[in-house]
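Researcher: Here's the sequence for the chain we discussed earlier.
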Amino acid sequence: KLLRLQGVDVFAAMLFLVQSARRRPRPWHVYALDRARRLYLPFLGWSAVTYLILVLLHTAGSRVSIPRISSETLVTGTAVHLWYLPFLFVASLLIYPLAAHMWTPRPAEHAPANKADPPTRETWLLPIAAAVVCAVIAILLTPGILGNPPVSGLPVLDRFIALTWVRWSAVFWGVSAGVLWCSRWRDSAWLWPLAI
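Model: Thanks. This is the structure I predict for it:
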């Protein structure tokens, strides 16, 4: 039931991992700036637009409340649905090191691999191990397993954790599936359940 409710998170994590693993790795700070431009700047822009619309509606006599601007607005935005963009931003930054490590040149960039080559430890053991580790983390982060989310003492961080705590399990399930998909296991019949 939980995975059904968080399907968007699973597929978002898989998408970040698979897309990042298909591109030549960039320095982390370059990737972070690109993610900020694509995810966090639109979040700030839509927060500003939403805030202005709410102020205009309020001054026109509507009974909408104007959100209070505080440091928490940096992760929640000015509308209830906007918190998801900072969540995607942080998730993509956390997934990128694994994706960059998994990058393999495309066939046009190197000599074609011989399909008769026997599988090596790197082609089957490491993806399986990474997928299992991610699955274990996903199970541990399932709501109710570890209890309440941790508290840092920083209001902004605590608000972000409170909003996203139930989503991280799904992110790690997505990373687990993405690791297998990016490896040579993607041609295996064992992965057909991922396509369903």
